[in-house]
Amino acid sequence: MRMNWGIKIVVGLATFMLFIVAAGVYMVSQDSDSLIEDDYYEKGLSYDDVYQRKQNLVDDVAKPDVKVDKDTLFVSFASVNNRGEFIFKRPSDGNLDKKIPFSTTTGLFVLPISSFSRGNWSLEISWESNGRTYIDTRALYIQ
Q: Quick check: 84 and 113 in contact, CB under 8 A?
């Protein structure tokens, strides 16, 4: 049986439409949003506060020094009497994210991290010192 060019066009279009419908059904059935933040809209609305905290960090030269030595995290702050929280985010698995509150009377904070999974982390340090608020974000690799 020979097919003429009209039938070949109809079969080709039908195949293409079937592929598009199948791809659409597949994408809708997958429940994996690749957003880093679940509440990204609310965080976008409060970005002025985040910007001011980052600007305070630059203006006051208050960027903390962060070092990982074996299974311990050392954070050296530029001033004393710091209070805030560490937010550890794991880009590959959001279930491993951790929030750890802290308070120091000296400029050094030591945190054991032996229970953390090895690999890449995003560390956000949000704190207050001497009436000023700061925020610092950096990549961290735990071995």
A: no
Residues 6+ apart with CB under 8 A from 120: 90, 91, 92, 139, 140, 141
Write out pLDDT tens, residues 48-103: 889 999 999 999 999 999 999 888 999 999 999 999 999 999 988 888 999 999 99
Burial label for 132, CB within 10 Å (0-12, 13-18, 19+), is: middle
User: What is the C-alpha separation between 57 and 1, in angstroms, rounded?
Assistant: 77
Query: What are phi and psi for residue 40, nearest 5 degrees?
Result: -65, -30
**124 closest CA partner among 103, 110, 139, 142:** 139
Query: What is the pLDDT, as a whole number, of residue 36?
Result: 62
